[in-house]
C-alpha cells in the first residue's frame, strides 16, 4: 500500500459521494499516480464499512473483469472483486430507476448461492461446486463512477468494481447438474439481440472465478461465508441502458431474467 489512512478515507468519501449523488469523477490515480490495487481494496473496504455502519446487510460478493471481452473493453488485464449489499438488489421484472445512476450498463452473469464457508488461499473449482447450494441466472447493472469510463484497476477496485444494482431470476439449478463451463447466453434489449456468449468466457469456468474471489478474499483477511450470493462475472461485454429500455438475459438451462429501466 502507498496511501495512508487519511488518504484512504478522503478517496472513500469522494467515491461514496459520486455513488450516492450519481455524478462522475476523474479516476483516482490522476491525483495519486502511485496508487496500487492494494490501495484500491483499502478504499473499497472503507466503503463497505460505511454501508455496514448505516445498517445495510451484505448479501455477497461479485467477481469483475473476469472475461477477455470485459478486460479488453476496459483496458485492464487482472480480474477484481467487489461487495454486494442488500440495497443493490432489485427483483425480477422491477422497474430500475436510472436517475440515481451515472451511465449504467448491463451484463449477464451466472450467480452462485453458497451453503458452506469457502476459504483461500488455494480454493478450487471443485470446492466451489461442492459448497454451492444452487446457481441462478443474474444481470449486473454496473455503473462506473469515473468520467467517460476512463479508469485503471486501482480506481475501479476503489469504486467497488463499478457495482450498482443486480437482479436474479430464472430457474435455480444444482451446480453439478448443468454444464456450467459452457452455457449459452443471449442478451436482448428492447426485443433485439445485443450480445451473446458462453459462460466459458468467464475465466474458462464461472466456478474458477468464484475460487479466484475466495483467494482474493483470503489476501484481504476474509473468507466467503455460507449463504453468500456471488456474481461470477460478465459473460459478454457490458451493454449501455437508459430510461425506457427493457432487457432480458436468456440463459441455456437456467431460463431468463428480465427488467425494465425508468
Ligand atoms: O463486473 C464487472 O466486470 C465490472 C468491472 C468494472 C468495469 C466496468 O465498469 O465495466
Ligand atoms: Mg459484472
Automatic annotation (TrEMBL):
EC number of the protein: 4.1.1.77
Residues of the signal peptide: none
Highest taxon of source: Bacteria
Gene3D superfamilies: Fumarylacetoacetase-like, C-terminal domain
GO CC list: cytoplasm
SUPFAM superfamilies: FAH (SSF56529)
One MF annotation (Gene Ontology) recorded for this entry: 2-oxopent-4-enoate hydratase activity
Protein name, UniProt field: 2-oxo-3-hexenedioate decarboxylase
Lineage of producing organism: Bacteria, Pseudomonadati, Pseudomonadota, Betaproteobacteria, Burkholderiales
Amino acid at each position: 500500500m502507498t496511501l495512508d489512512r487519511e488518504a484512504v478515507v478522503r478517496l472513500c468519501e469522494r467515491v461514496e459521494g459520486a455513488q450516492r449523488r450519481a455524478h462522475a469523477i476523474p479516476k483516482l490515480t490522476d491525483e495519486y499516480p502511485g496508487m496500487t490495487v492494494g490501495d484500491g481494496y483499502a478504499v473499497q473496504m472503507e466503503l463497505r464499512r460505511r454501508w455496514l455502519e448505516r445498517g445495510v446487510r451484505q448479501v455477497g460478493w461479485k467477481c469483475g473483469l473476469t472475461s477477455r471481452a470485459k478486460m479488453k473493453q476496459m483496458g485492464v488485464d487482472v480480474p477484481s472483486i467487489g461487495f454486494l449489499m442488500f440495497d443493490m438488489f432489485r427483483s425480477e421484472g422491477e422497474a430500475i430507476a436510472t436517475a440515481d445512476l451515472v451511465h449504467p450498463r448491463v451484463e449477464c452473469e451466472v450467480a452462485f448461492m453458497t451453503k458452506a464457508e469457502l476459504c483461500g488461499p488455494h480454493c478450487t473449482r471443485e470446492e466451489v461446486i461442492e459448497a454451492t447450494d444452487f446457481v441462478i441466472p443474474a444481470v449486473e447493472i454496473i455503473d462506473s463512477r469515473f468520467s467517460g469510463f476512463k479508469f485503471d484497476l486501482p480506481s475501479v477496485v476503489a469504486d467497488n468494481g463499478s457495482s450498482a444494482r443486480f437482479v436474479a431470476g430464472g430457474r435455480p439449478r444444482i451446480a453439478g447438474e448443468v454444464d456450467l463451463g459452457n452455457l449459452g447466453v443471449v442478451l436482448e434489449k428492447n426485443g433485439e439481440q445485443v450480445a451473446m456468449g458462453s459462460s466459458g468466457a468467464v475465466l474458462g469456468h464461472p466456478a474458477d472465478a468464484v475460487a479466484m474471489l475466495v483467494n482474493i478474499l483470503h489476501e484481504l483477511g476474509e473468507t466467503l461465508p455460507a449463504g453468500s450470493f456471488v456474481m461470477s462475472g460478465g459473460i459478454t461485454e457490458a451493454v449501455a441502458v437508459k430510461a425506457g429500455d427493457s432487457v432480458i438475459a436468456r440463459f441455456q438451462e437456467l431460463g431468463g431474467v428480465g427488467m425494465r429501466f425508468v
